[in-house]
Amino acid sequence: MNTGHGPDSAPDRSPGDRAFDAVLCDLDNVIRFYDTAPLAALEQAAGLPEGTTTDSGYAPEIDLPLLLGRITPDAWAESIAAGLAERVGAERARELGRALADAPFRADAEVVSLLRRARTHVPLVLVTNATLQLDAYLALLGLTDLADAVVSSAVEQVAKPDPALYRIAAERAGVPMERCLFVDDRQENVDAAAALGMTTALYREPADLRRALGPCSAEADGADGAALTPR
After folding, report:
1. Which positions ≥6 away from 58 have C-beta within 8 Å?
2. Looking at residue 215, what DSSP letter applies?
3. In what order do the strands lie in the sheet with 124-128?
């Protein structure tokens, strides 16, 4: 990607005007959101509490191999099904596993707009626990040009909250860790960034991001305008 930023490029604002010189931002549940309503309907039909499939699929022993690029999404879905088969039968368990693996997703337009504005001021790096299919998913969302760099657990073979992934991200941004703003929806990931000296923001809604970005959320010519394409 053409960054337009880097350790030797001139900043557009004095460093004293803000607490950070780069933004490191999570993807899921900050930028990308999944529609789990179809899965919830299947769980209800199977007599399972809503969220049962998600709890199973995101358990570390099931999820981590996928996020480290060691198994495919199909294999992940089969692992989920294997864990649910005794409760609902093999066929319905496979249906639930596939529904989670194939859940449709969208990008939050307000968050994307804020990040595009921020990138006109400082480098933006996506830091995400993701699968090897991430590039294809970003293309589906129309977000291949959103960030200066993308740091993915599946590519780097290390997942948040491991400090190694944060160090890689700061290096890609071209700034010291203590000059990075880290945004994530999970407290343990935010805590890990704070322990490395980063400025942090726990994301719950776009206002959290806007507040953390401060003047970097101000609109600039050409900062917005990418189309958001749902899966």
Report:
1. none
2. G
3. 149-152, 124-128, 22-25, 180-184, 199-202
Q: pTM here? A: 0.87
Closest CA to 78 of 90, 88, 68: 90
Residue pointed to by tokens 């394409």? 229
The per-residue pLDDT for range 173-200, each reduced to its tens digit, is 999 999 999 999 999 999 999 999 999 9
Q: Where are the beta strands (DSSP E) in the chain?
A: 22-25, 32-34, 105-107, 124-128, 149-152, 180-184, 199-202
Angle between helices 90-101 and 37-46 (to 10 degrees): 170
* 81-91 pLDDT per residue, tens: 999 999 999 99
The tokens 């293309």 sit on which residue?
A: 139
Q: 22-25 and 124-128 as β-strands: parallel, antiparallel, unpaired?
A: parallel
Upper half-sphere CA count for residue 15 (Cβ side, 13 Å): 11
